[in-house]
Write a structure and sequence with these properties.
Helix content: 40-55%
Oligomer: single chain
Strand content: 5-15%
Structural class: alpha/beta
Number of helices: 18
Radius of gyration: 30 Å
Largest sheet: 6 strands, mixed
Number of strands: 8
């Protein structure tokens, strides 16, 4: 008989299914532990039962057990049917486990059945691409003999070879009417919540524990979203604040000028790399999950692609006249300051709205630079928008990416009217950072945490959250 469970004991769930159905992949996604187990296309990768806990607030609420694949369910079903009819189905399984076959011909199957009997429920992972062969019918019957609640999870349903309707019909024939669609590589939005909600229906006596898990899922998602938006904003503010003075001597020396521009671009690339790595970590992924091959904006090609005229022209068309107007105001302000007194320049700057683009707070410095022939190297608005586009897309893709995915992440721009409007709304507040080069966060230097920078960061974080609402990933590795 199964041991009576205490209220505070974790819920034990066996994850079962045929070989290479995606059991380990599913557990990686549910637990956010990308290193758990071994995921491979080779059959029978998992050979032993492995446990993995889901902890909330320091307490283990769920304990999953990754089991080997059922290899010969037809023979196993036949063997169980030969046992005395006076035995209940679970007793037949126990008799099998006590016999020599459990250490011989059915050794792998015995590991699965033993775990089923000691678990509170089972998640039955199905590869929907597989044809409905007799061995799978036998597999379902064998699992049912353990008399445990079973929640089918239909995997690989996005495949063109998916046989979801046939599998649903087969499951219903054996009393398994509820099934969850859950891509281990790229889960459907809400699939994880649906899985736990359905489990709470099957396990009403443990509903309170499963509801705690659901609440924590919502909390984690909200925290990841807020932290991601804030990290993106910090990078955008730092990029907008980047400003390097260029002396007349450097401008006259082509080699020195090229070296300065190269170093400037390299610092920007490094800043974005750090942001990407932080975003991956926030979502429980490894650095290599954002491929340097697939994502040119995080690769060595990004330095050229980011400033490529064709790339920036594409962004200019996306932004429309609004961004062009902002850039033009900044250029006009620089020209207008030449040869004017500070008072006159201030009046002119106020009249043409210089704060909209380059930030009027830097007028004295710009006047000094004009007098001394010093120019400044900054980022164009189109570059800032390109950064915002890529980083918000990355956040959105990570939210829908399973932790079993082995292919690289691919992002594509998908402009829409609401998306364009949300991006443009980021530009105006970002212009404030242009007047504060001290707001740039440079590697190895102390960070600026002034009240004005923090206030701008909070304002922009709300705007980025709105962008995340309208941006949908159009490419996910799978």
């Amino acid at each position: 008989m199964a041991e009576r469970k205490k209220a505070g004991d974790p819920i034990n769930i066996a994850v079962v299914g045929h070989t290479n159905a995606g059991k380990t992949s599913l557990l990686r996604t549910l637990t956010r532990q990308v290193r758990f187990g071994q995921v491979s296309d080779r059959p029978g990768t998992t050979r032993h039962v492995e446990a993995i806990d889901l902890d909330i607030a320091g307490q283990t609420l769920l304990r999953y057990f990754d089991t080997p694949g059922l290899e010969d369910s037809v023979a196993l079903q036949y063997h169980l049917k030969q046992m005395p009819e006076t035995l209940t189905p679970p007793d037949r399984v126990r008799a099998l486990l006590d016999g020599p076959e459990a250490r011989g011909v059915f050794e792998q199957e015995a590991k699965v059945l033993r775990q089923m009997l000691t678990s509170d429920a089972a998640i039955y992972v199905i590869d929907c691409r597989e044809p409905l062969l007799p061995k799978y019918r036998s597999e379902i019957e064998v699992l049912n003999t353990c008399a445990r609640p079973i929640m089918p999870v239909l995997n690989f349903v996005r495949s063109e070879h998916c046989r979801e309707p046939e599998w649903r019909e087969l499951l219903a024939a054996y009393g398994l009417h509820a099934a969850v669609l859950f891509e281990a590589v790229a889960p459907f939005v809400g699939a994880e919540r649906q899985l736990y909600e359905d489990l709470s229906v099957l396990m009403r006596q443990r509903k309170a524990t499963l509801q705690t898990v659901l609440l924590d899922l919502d909390r984690q998602a909200g925290e990841r979203r807020a932290a991601s938006a804030q990290r993106v904003v910090d990078t955008l503010i730092s990029a907008a604040a980047m400003r390097r003075e260029v002396s007349p001597e450097t401008l006259a020396d082509a080699q020195a000028k090229e070296a300065l521009v190269t170093a400037f671009r390299a610092e920007l690339v490094g800043s974005v790399r750090r942001c990407v790595h932080d975003l991956l970590q926030m979502h429980g992924f490894e650095r290599d999950d954002a491929s340097l091959e697939v994502l040119p904006w995080t690769s060595d090609r990004w330095a050229s692609d980011l400033f490529n005229p064709e790339t920036l022209a594409t962004v200019g068309r996306l932004l429309g006249r609004g961004a062009a107007a902002g850039a033009a105001v900044g250029f006009t302000l620089d020209l207008a300051l030449a040869g004017m007194s500070l008072g006159a320049a201030t009046a002119l700057g106020a009249a043409i709205g210089g704060a909209v683009s380059q930030g009027w707070g830097q007028a004295p410095r710009m006047l000094r630079n004009k007098i001394m022939g010093i120019e400044e190297l900054t980022l164009d608005n189109s570059v800032l928008v390109l950064l915002a586009d890529h980083l918000t897309h990355l956040c959105q893709v990570l939210q829908a990416r399973g932790h079993a995915a082995q292919d690289t992440i691919e992002l594509r721009m998908a402009p829409s009217s609401s998306y364009r409007k949300a991006l443009l709304q980021l530009l105006e507040p970002l212009q404030q950072a242009r007047a504060h080069p001290e707001w740039e966060h440079r590697a190895g230097q102390s960070r600026d945490h002034s009240r004005r920078r923090e206030a701008l960061g909070q304002r922009l974080a709300h705007a980025v959250a709105e962008v995340l609402d309208v941006v949908q990933p159009t490419g996910v590795g799978n």
